[in-house]
Amino acid sequence: MGLKEIVLTKSIYVFHVSSGSCNNCDIEIIAALTPRFDLERFGVVLVGSIKHADAMLCTGSSNRLAIPRVKALYEQMPKPGFVIAYGSCGASRGLFKDSYNTCAPLDEIIPVDAYIPGCPPKPEATIAALAKLIARVRAKKAVK
Amino acid sequence: MKFPAYMFAFLVFPGFVFSAVAGLMAGWVDRKVTARLQWRVGPPWYQNFFDILKLLLYKETLIPRGVPKAVFLGMPALGLAAATLVSTIVLITSGMPKIGFIGDVIVVVYLMLIPPITLMLGGFASANSLASLGASREMKLMLSYELPFILALAVPIMKCGYVIRLGDIIAYQRLHGDIFASLSGGISFFVMLLCIQAKLGFVPFDMPEAETELMGGPYIEYSGKALAIFKLTKAVMTVAIPAFMIALYLGGIKLTLDGIVKAVIKYILILTAMIIIKNTNPRVRIDQAVKFFWGIVMVLAAVSLVLAFMGR
Questions:
Q1: Which chain B positions have a beta carbon within 8 Å of A34's beta carbon?
Q2: Are A44 and B212 in contact (CB under 8 A)?
């Protein structure tokens, strides 16, 4: 664990990508940032531009319309950056698995570093996933 | 002073290194007080240093296609140089009033305009419609706050017997008491507080950046080192502009132990006042901001100018 891993994990700016989600996960993301849980304690800030981001938080089932956008956003993210699949839809397409419109789960479109299952995941689950991601980065398993 | 001394003053103390570190700490005070006002815990004190280190050392700097590279990457550097020059001149002169030249108040006012202009040009250069919109708002905001700012600045100049040397203003206050204590000084201090709120892009007047509608405005296409330099510019300005106010209204910095402690307390009070204004007000529209600055604030500034002319 060098300076790079410490610096990268102490200050994670998150960009929120909604690839056809039902807004349930999106509300829970905001809940994780509000006073009760306050992710800013760990340096997590929600940013508006993908160019400022260190992590993509992808919600939704990544339908056909969204796939080119998700790819473009992944390419625009300054590296090193992480991708987190948020919610059941992000992790595995959820109940849209057999839909004509969702042809692949997120991790077959872009490389995913962490999964947060749940419909929607609780803020506690978000924090637990963040801790696991930080441990992975510090063990040099997830830095690209 | 000789050339190496100037370079040391510009690059280390009280120039770049000192003001950047102090500005990042001020940025932490901002985030922490904001968090406490929102009943959150807030980040630890070293948070801003990690943010800057991350951007400076490890993140990629992306340049969009079809962008003039020299303007896109040169503007942040120019802004940081101007901001550092402001903080160097202001901090040295408020500590040692004898150093300085006639007209340095005017030089400081013009140098303070360069960081917003570089931000504007960087925004226009970054080939993004949201960045252009943010840059055009920045331009309107600059036009609106600059007039009351200069009118308010005229009050200390007038009260000190029409001097345009920062050192003379401070020397006058050491003899005759702070300008803030007089009626016109108090009013123009308040006017200038509102203007620097806009100058630093704090919330009621942060419509150029507008995280929720413009996604960062002129900053939107900046990443990595260029974004870090813009953030450092903002940090340096967060030190330089309140220090300029302390020099104009509150007697500068006496170079004794309790003088320095008093100056730091004054700085933190001004900063906290701005943070509280920031957290208790929603963002206004650009037309509301122009109306506010050219209406009420202008009238207040004019009243303080008339009072200063009458010797109050």
A1: 40
A2: no
